[in-house]
Amino acid sequence: MSEKSIIATFTLLGSLASYYYAKANEKDLAPYTMIGGFIGGFIGGFIGELVYKSYNENQNK
């Protein structure tokens, strides 16, 4: 799985989770979805970087 697909997956999951949270609590959907997508992208970038580094370390051995 490439780093871009990891980031995209976490962005999607973060925005969907925050969408359902806002919908269940009768909040405005747009800000929650945007913030959830941003946080998901940040987490996905962090995890993608860890996976990419460990993959490169294993390839160099």
Polypeptide structure, described:
The structure is a single chain. With 61 residues, this protein is mainly α. Helix content is 89%, strand content 0%. It contains 2 helices and no strands. Helix 1 runs antiparallel to helix 2. The longest helix has 32 residues. The relative contact order is 0.19.
Quick structural overview:
This protein has 61 residues and is mainly alpha-helical. It contains two helices and no strands. It is rod-shaped.
Strand elements, count: 0
Strand-pairing-aware structural class: mainly alpha
Radius of gyration based on Cα positions: 15 Å
Percentage of residues in DSSP E strands: under 5%
Report the end-to-end length measured between terminal Cα atoms.
Answer: 20 Å
Discrete helix count: 2
**Helical amount:** over 70%
Kindly state the mean pLDDT as a whole number?
Answer: 92
Low-confidence stretches: none
Shape: rod-shaped
How is the biggest beta sheet arranged?
Answer: none
Strand/helix succession: HH
Task: Provide the fold topology.
Blueprint: H1 3-24, H2 29-60
